[in-house]
Design a protein that fits this description.
single chain; 153 residues; alpha+beta; Arc Repressor Mutant, subunit A; 2 domains; 3-stranded antiparallel beta sheet; 32% helix; globular
Length: 153
């Protein structure tokens, strides 16, 4: 992947929004879905090209994408777990808690941790929170639903 820091974006007709990534060197620091074209964004980044293919229906995995996220430790554990959920596979919040080594599905506070981590996900799509059916998402609700539909969830 290119080692150029910056902001990159592309328009997605499928989402009826733009997809914008923030890069720090070869690491993604943010991914968002603005309605309007970002004024400061460039196009043509290899990751943007992969996202376009995914949104066009090509099965694409983003597990190899390097991330540089500043999130609290318990959220990092949850997001790392969610990142391993395969394409077109659905989990619920309790199963994510069970799959996360530092959490328990029997603890209400741990279930809240999962929900809060999903809501605060700084890189939805790369960390596919749309695959957690009863959790939150870092993406807007309409985008989350379209991503779920794209994968047949």
């Amino acid at each position: 992947m290119a080692e150029t820091a910056g902001i990159y974006a592309t328009e997605s007709l499928y989402l009826d929004r733009f997809v914008q990534i923030g890069m720090a060197g070869d690491r993604v620091i943010s991914l968002s879905f603005p309605r309007d074209q970002p004024a400061d964004a460039a196009g043509g980044h290899p990751l943007i090209n992969r996202i376009e293919r995914y949104l066009d229906g090509t099965r694409e995995s983003f597990e190899d994408v390097k991330l540089a996220m500043t999130v609290q430790t318990d959220h990092r554990h949850v997001l790392s777990t969610v990142r391993t959920i395969p394409y077109a596979t659905q989990r619920d919040v309790e199963s994510v808690a069970r799959m996360t080594p530092t959490l328990s599905a029997d603890e209400p506070a741990d279930i809240d941790t999962v929900r809060n981590a999903l809501d605060a996900n700084p890189v939805p799509l790369i960390i596919p929170d749309h695959r957690v059916r009863d959790g939150g998402s870092g993406a807007p609700a309409d985008v989350e639903q379209r991503l779920r539909a794209l994968e047949g969830l």
